[in-house]
Amino acid sequence: MSKVILFDGVCNFCDQSVQFILKRDKQEQFTFASLQGDAGQELLKRNYVPTNMNSFILIDGNKTYFKSTAALRVCKELNGAWKLLYGFMIIPKPLRDFLYGVIANHRYEWFGQKQSCTLPSPETRKRFL
């Protein structure tokens, strides 16, 4: 199975992040599932993630990554200079996750919220669970 990104499907910032990844993941390594969907909820259970987890989540094989670690691991796999962001892994996780949390806790306020998840285009539909 490819690497699966679980994201908040009603968050505008999260949706734009998925679109960003789709454009830069030329090897099509990542598939996506919204946290609100059945597939996302099943993956949370299967990987023993609390269902109230409100974070960007990367499932890579039998390893699950959260928050800043998940985001930076995704950046490492993208085409272009985005790989360089992985260097921020040297910052202690508590500090990285604190900064991640500031954005995550204000994402609806700063970027808005949708009433429902965006439907993927026909070209990218195969990458969504």
From TrEMBL:
Give the residue range of the signal peptide: none
MF GO annotations = protein-disulfide reductase activity
The name this protein goes by in its record: Thiol-disulfide oxidoreductase DCC family protein
